[in-house]
Amino acid sequence: MGxxxxxxxxxxxxxxxxxxxxxxxxxxxxxxxxxEQAIARxxxxxxxxxxxxxxxxxxxxxxxPSNDSQYIGARGLPPEFIAQLEKEFGFDKPxxxxxxxxxxxxxxxxxGESYFRSISVIDLIKEKLPVSITLGLWSTLIAYLVSIPLGxxxxxxxxxxxxxxxxxxxxxxxxxxGFLFAILLLVLFAGGSYFxxxxxxxxxxxxxxxxxxxxxxxxxxxxxxxxxxxxxxxAFATLTLLTKxxxxxxxxxxxxxxxxxxxxxxxxxxxxxxxxNAMLIVxxxxxxxxxxVFFGGxxxxxxxxxLDGLGRLGFEAAVARDYPIVFGTxxxxxxxxxxxxxxxxxxxxxxxxxxxxxxREG
Length: 362
Prior knowledge:
The chain is mostly helical. It has helices at about 1-25, 35-40, 50-60, 80-90, 95-105, 120-155, 160-175, 180-190, 215-230, 235-250, 255-260, 265-285, 285-295, 300-305, 310-320, 325-350, 355-360. Helix 1 (about 1-25) packs antiparallel against helix 16 (about 325-350) and helix 7 runs antiparallel to helix 10.
């Protein structure tokens, strides 16, 4: 197993390099880069896209001909100013050199500073991380704690009324978009048209530091109840049905019939024999569930509940073309995702020691 883990760790390097290279190459063709964004801000335009919209009508009034500058919206600005911006953002160097410098810095976990926020990327991520950890960790934990026992129960009572009405309930929950359910929760329980039970924004209250330890725990869970529920609701259906079908497949196999013939109790058969085999496919889906909830599905939830997490940070950085944040978070998230994949394989072996990845590769 040790050699397999070493090989997987070594594969992280080319995989991560390929992810960064593809995204870096795509960015070179995206209009409205950091220099154009800075120019638009310097001219009071807010962002570069307003300049694109008005370029056709303002071109005739420009002081410089259109071919004197490669940047739309830069007309009328001194060339020295444009050159200084390019040097500041590193665009005075060819793309290959910029990419190699970026990878060298990232290998040393030096992600630089934000173009427009005057703060290091690491500090920004640390600032936003508590929100994403809260949503990702609690949503994944609750989804597994509810879905696995429910799926086992549905498999044992397959075809009964319990199986029918729970299936209808979780499929209905899956069909409701997360953002729509979040808005519904706000309207019902957060000061909308009905009750004002939960707070509207933030992870903690303004007086959090003044609360007792027990009160701090209660305040934290009071704030995260609605956003965690909204981000978890759609995960129940997939995990529950996956668990149920996996257990049904195992229950019908010959070794289960043999175990029952030997006089083992139904509980002993279920948890002593079936559970270990049936849970393999559920564990295999853990990285996708965790990474999806942790990074992918948080933007809308963060926006609705006024939470400042990594989802909003990444979106705002992409819109502003703040490349240090974009590529820094991409590198970190990609690395975490690859490591979680290795941890998933280790969980395979923990659940079923008969699995030997080295022998299967050989």
